[in-house]
Amino acid sequence: MALDLDQHDHRILAELQADARLTMAELGRRVHLSQPAVTERVRKLEEAGVIRGYHAVVDAGRLGYAIRAVIRIGNTDEPALLAALASSPEVLTAYGVTGEDSWILEIAVRDVAHLSALLSRFCQQTPTSTAIILRVLREHAPLKPLPTAEVPAPTDPASKKPRRGGA
């Protein structure tokens, strides 16, 4: 369920998504609130689960992971696969999904041999589809407030024009 957030809350979230290392004093200056007020709002956003954590964005390539890929795993929920997914540091993200596949993974591996070993560990009896990521257009995009849906005026079925006044 979405919380009722005001403009200050949305500005706080935008600033923290851009730089989670801001001090509360600097965050307060940027959103035009006092340090105690912004600290209290951040605490409430954390308690409500809107802010779930603060993370460093790490460049996998600089750590020796030359290949990032997306793997689609066919319909299965076998316990061995789930245990392998949970215990594999190469798995950056694992989504349980609807449709023809059960899982979509984002992984990082050193090279093609590492990719092959990972695939054989996960998918001995389950069909997979693997796509190597060549470039990234958008990643870790900040969430922004959803626009308020406008409700269209009721129409008169005979004229297809909006009704005016009473019924």
From TrEMBL:
State the CDD domains in the record: HTH_ARSR (cd00090)
Q: Where is the HTH asnC-type domain?
A: 5-66
Task: State the residue spans of region: Disordered.
Answer: 145-167
Asked if Cell wall biogenesis/degradation is a keyword of the record, the answer is no
Q: Which Gene3D superfamilies match?
A: 3.30.70.920, Winged helix-like DNA-binding domain superfamily/Winged helix DNA-binding domain
Query: Which keywords does this chain's UniProt record carry?
Result: DNA-binding, Transcription, Transcription regulation
- Coiled-coil parts of chain: none
PROSITE patterns, per the entry:
HTH_ASNC_2 (PS50956)
Q: Which Pfam families match?
A: AsnC_trans_reg, HTH_24
Q: What InterPro entries does this protein's entry cite?
A: ArsR-like_HTH (IPR011991), AsnC-type_HTH_dom (IPR000485), Dimeric_a/b-barrel (IPR011008), Tscrpt_reg_AsnC-like (IPR019888), Tscrpt_reg_AsnC/Lrp_C (IPR019887), WH-like_DNA-bd_sf (IPR036388), WH_DNA-bd_sf (IPR036390)
* Name the UniProt record assigns to this protein: Lrp/AsnC family transcriptional regulator
